[in-house]
Specification:
single chain; 860 residues; alpha+beta; Methylamine Dehydrogenase, Chain H; 7 domains; six-stranded antiparallel beta sheet; four-stranded antiparallel beta sheet; 42 strands; elongated; Protein PTHB1-like; PTHB1
Amino acid sequence: MTLFHLREFWSTNLGDDEEFDKLSICVANIDNEPDGFDKIIVGSFNGIVRIFKIILNNNNNDQIKTNEQNLFQISDQLLEVDFKNPILQIASGYLLNSANVQLAILHPNKLCVYSISSTSGVTDHGTSYNILLIYELEFSHKAVNMLIGPLGQTTKGKDIICIQNIESTFEFYENETFSFGYNWNHRQTNNNNGLLKKFPIDFTYIPNRDFIIIVDDLYTIQCYQYRELAMNSTTANNSFNNNNDGQGKISVPEWSYEFGEPIIDLQTVQLDRWYIGILGEKNLCVLRDNGTLFFVKKFDSNPSCFCIFGNDKKDSIIILIGTHMNNMLLYQNDILRWATKIPFIPIAIRRANLNDITGSIVLLSDQGQLTFGYLGTNPSLRIIALPLLQTNTGNNEKIEEELMELKKMINFEHMNSNQNQNQIENERENRLTDGPIDINLIECQKNQQSERLMIMIIELIPSKTIHNIKLLLHQNDFYIIEPEEILIDKLDQRQQFQLRIQFKHENLLSLSTKIKYSIMYTMDNVSRIITKNLFIPFECLVKLISSSSTSASTTTMNGGRKYSIKIMFTKSLSSTTDSKSTQLLSNLFGDLFQTNHSNNFSFCFENYEQIHSTIKIQWSESNVTIIVESNDLGGLYITLQQLFWRILTNKSPETKKIESIQMNFNLIDQLQLAISNRINRKNQMKKIKDEISKFSQHYRVLQKRILVKSKDKTPASLDNFSKLLTLIQKKITKNIDNIIHLEKLINICNYHVWTILNIWRLILEQGRKSNSTDSLEKFSKLIQIYQLSNFNNDWEELFLQSILEIFQMNKDLVKMIQMIEPKQQQQQQQKQKQQQNEQKILLNRMSRFNQILKEKKKNY
C-alpha cells in the first residue's frame, strides 16, 4: 500500500442514465465573482447543464477537514437547467465586447451564448443564480465541436468562435457576426474524381504564433496559420445557412507530423515557448510549436484522457494521465513522478482553483461521477493493519511445523540418497500431493454426437473450507481438454464439473491415459499448489470384439504382421493348483471380461477400430505365461501398460515374479528402422527446401526481367516469360505441399520412436525388479521421453551415440537383452542354418555326381 494517493474532498453523481464526453466539462469563473474562484460547469448529452461552486468546511485554524465533512450538499449546486437538446460541448470565453466571461453551449443545430449572474437574497433567502441568453447561431448542417480563442491576434477581452460541422467545414464568428468559412473537402484541379472527403477532426490553437493545430483522418498533425485560412476561405457568407461548396485555394501547412495511431485528445501548454501534447492509444507525444519532436512516451496500459500544464517555475511540463486501469499517472516531461488509484475511469481531467486550493484536480466519468481532490499523502497509521497477537502466534506455530516437516523431508532424502531413486520420488510425491482437496472421477462416457469426444465428470471434495481455488488442466500431445481452467471463489462442499476430452490425432493412437492437473488455492492467507494425475478409464477407450475379427485385421495392417510379447511368471508355493487362467483373467480384467469360460479375449480401440489387441493366458504347473498380441506397436504398448498396472494393483501370487520376456520382433532393429526413416525424411526435406530457394531466386530474376522488358518503347512478346513464371510457381507450390506431407511423416516417425522407447522402458522396468542394477537405471532414464516435442534437430545422432556408449560400458544390459531376445527368432535362425547346411550337402553331392559322369565319358 502506498502513502501517495488522490485526496478526495468532494464528489457527487450527476443524474441517472446520463452520458458525458471529454468536451462535457468546463472549469472557469463563469459568474465573474471578484474572488476569482473557478466553478465546475457540466453538460450531458441529455441536455442538462449543472454549475457547481464547491465550498469546503473550515475549522478555526483555517484547515480543511476530512472527507466526511465535505460531502456534496444542495448549496454546492448553483444552477441546473434542462435545455431539452443534446449538449455536444461546453466552453467559456470573452464572447462580448466586455471584460466578463460568457458561457458557450454547442447543440447539434445551434450555438447559444449565455451570461451567468447572481442575485443576493433578502433576509433569510440565499443568493440565487440566473442564466440569460445573449445570442444564438443556428446551423443548417450538424455541428461537431468548437474552438474559442483570440484567433487572428485580436485585442484582449475578445475571442473568436470556430465551429466545425459534420461536413468538415470551419466557420469563424466574431460575436454574432459571421467572418468566413473554410471547407476541407475542397476540389482540386488535378483530381478528376471530385471531392476529397475528410472526416471531422480534433483541433486546438496556439495564440502567440496564431496557429491552428489539426489532426486529419490519417492521424497526421498539421499546423496552419489563421490568416492563410482566412485568405483561402471557401465561403464569403454563412455556408451553414447556404448549401454551396466554394472553391477556394488550397492551404499549405506550416509543418506536419505523422503520429500514426488514433488520437484521444490534443492540448497546448506554454513555457518559454508553446508545446503541443498529443495523447494516443499507446503513446504520448509532445511537439514544439515549430513541429519538432520534444519527447515520446509509450504506455503499458490504455490511457483514457489527460491534462497538460506547466509547473510554477515554467521549466517543465506536468502531465496528468487517466487510464482504463483506474490509475492516474503524473509525468514531469517524460519521467513518471507519481501513480495513484482513482475511484473510476475518467474521461476528462481538469485543473482548477477551487476554494483557494490551487492545483485542484477535477475528474469526470462517462456515467456522471464527478470528483474533486488533489494529490497528497495520508500519513495516518490506520492504513497499516497490525495483526492481533493471538493470530500471529498461531501463524508462527504453523510455519514452524511446516519448516520441521520440510527439514525431515530433506534429511530423509539425504540419508537415503543411495537407495532407489523411484522409491524416493514416490514418497516425495505422496507427501507433496497431500492436500485438503481430492478429485474423484464420477463418470466417463463417449459423446454420441462426436466420435472423437469424451465427456468426463469429476467431483471436488474439500476437507475444509477453501477460498480462491484455481483448477488447471495440463494439455498433452494426445488430448485437447476443455475447459483449461476452473475458478472457484469458495469451496465448502462437494461440487461436480464436466470436462470435454477430444482426441488430437485421427490416425495415431493415443499412447497415454494420464491427465495432469494442478490445484492452486488459498488457506490461512497462504497460497498453495497441489499437482496430481487423473487417468482415463481403460473401458472408455476399448471395446470387446471376437477373435475372428482380429485375424482379419492383421491381413490389412502391416502386411499381416502381428507383434507379440510373451511374459512368463514363476508360480509361488502359496498358489494352489485349482487356480485357472480364466480366474486370473477375470481378476485382472473384471471390468472388461465377463465370462469365465475362456483363457483369452480380444478388443479394439475406440475411434481406431483397425487396431486390435489380444491377451492370452497359458497355465502350467511351474509357471504362468501371459501373451500380449497386437497388430500395432501403439496398441501393444497401451495393452502392456494396462497389464503391468493391473498386475501391480492386483498383487496376485501367480504373477509375483517375472521369469522371462520373449518377443517375436527385435526392439533394436525397430528403433534403428524408425530413426533411419526419420533421418531420410529430414534429408528429403532439406533437398526440397534447397530446390524451393533456387526456384524462388529464378522467379525473382524473371520478374525483374519482365519489368525491364515492359518498360521498353517497343516491348516484345512476354508469353514465354509468363509460361516460365507459371511453371516455376507450380513447382514451388508442389514442393511446399511435399514439405507439408514430409512434416506429417516425420511426426509419424516421432510417434513410432516414442512408442518403441516406451515399450523398451516398460520391459526394462519389469526386469529391473528382479535384477536391479545401476546400468539399467541409467538406460531407463535415457529413454524416458514424455513429450513428442523433445525430438529436436540433432536428436538422432545424440541418442544413437548414447545407446552405443551405454551398451559398450555395461555388460548387464547385454544379459537383459538376451533375456528379452525372442525364442522364435532363434528357432528361425537355426532353421536357416539347417537349410544352408542341407543346400551345401546337395551341392556337394551334385558336384560329385558330375565328376563321376565326366570320368565315365572319358573311359568310353
